[in-house]
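From the thread on structure requests for the teaching lab: each student submitted one protein with a one-line request. Submission from student K.M.:

"Model CcmD family protein from Persicitalea jodogahamensis, tokens only."
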Amino acid sequence: MNIKFMKRLSFFILAFALISINLFAQSGVNSEVAMADQMRNDGKIWVVVGVIALIFAGIIVYLIRLDNKLTKVEKELNIK
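Reply posted by the TA:
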């Protein structure tokens, strides 16, 4: 294998290992989040869920339109 590839791969493995150590450090914290509980009780959590769903839907629509445009350009380039 390429040495550059191996260096990059080892860097990413090290980075993910360090990230996972940070996540394990937070496991001792109480899992109850007062803000999330309050939002659930008020019914505002559904607003947050709706906004996130709308953002993801927008990203999906954008990617589909972009794919269609790229397909059209590729077809035009192959014809010429």
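TA comment: Residues 52 and 72 are 31 Å apart (CA to CA). The chain has two domains: 1-31, 32-80.
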